[in-house]
């Protein structure tokens, strides 16, 4: 849905300094009539790793469901070589093959028959050439660098990757993340390709704590919502939910480590594309809405690096306006839905001393520590389609969350409502 909107009307000094929601180099008010919302998913799997469908079939689903861009991110592989697979041995089996045959009858390469029937997986460049539509739909190459430390899965997605990146391995969880970030940075610098790396599902296997991620340099993105039902977005009685982890990270990066803001993504992490909807990892659960001038990988990534986007699991926004006085959120409402808009932040001087989580024997668990309720507190709350927050002058950062009264139609976790997450901005007193 390509609606042109004015997303930020004023560009105060503190927003420009933070590179957050800074939509132009000048500081005069302006409208963004030359830019459009672009809806996309940056975490997708196919038959090239552990997904149950073919690249072209997956691309067709997203294009038909009003997405503007899609990043393929199979595990530790790029779809850049010829590969033949036994149809009956693929995760999607005959169901995926029959759909492929019906939708793309004119370009399937196959050999053998019966139980020995094989099909050639189309390379990314072939699929992109067929599916891309200038200014309308774009496929972007990516990779899920699937690393681990001991038994902790550490997965990171690279969007617009040029060359496959090997898992870098490290001395601990933090070091493993940092090494993979560095590898992506080095490829970007060496090749000149505009690339973006982000941490996937930190609560998958409860592998990554806030303390691991808060001090990583060069990492600006992580998944605040992942549509896979096995990644524990909400945490449990001993593990913090992912949104709480985000606030702990933000407070420490700004108050302790002098690092930039970290932005939150919503993604599908799609693996299962048949019999929809179902309780597996389906497409269509989470996405990003990026405001940019061109539907090109470089433009999309640069806009996201400025914070010119929001994450969503179903709520659409009409505008987010920031100036020196505060922030205003306006929802693009759906019939029959009501909206709760919350402004969330942490104030300067908040106690950031965390306490360990203890097991039944009183021993510390490897889990995000317990912090004051003032870390990521709700600063203001409003019911309606528009709400404003006036900066008090002592905030480290402010972000916003919008929750619909309508439950998610295909939730990854029971009880999820449709939501949107607005990226954090620096408080007016933070340099």
UniProtKB/TrEMBL annotation:
Gene Ontology terms, MF aspect: 5'-3' DNA exonuclease activity; 5'-3' RNA exonuclease activity
Membrane spanning stretches: none
Annotated segments matching region Disordered: 402-431
Signal peptide: 1-24
Annotated organism of origin: Posidoniimonas polymericola
UniProt keyword terms in alphabetical order: Signal
Protein name: PHP domain protein
Domain of life of the native organism: Bacteria
Gene3D superfamilies recorded: Metal-dependent hydrolases
InterPro entries: PHP_domain, Pol/histidinol_Pase-like
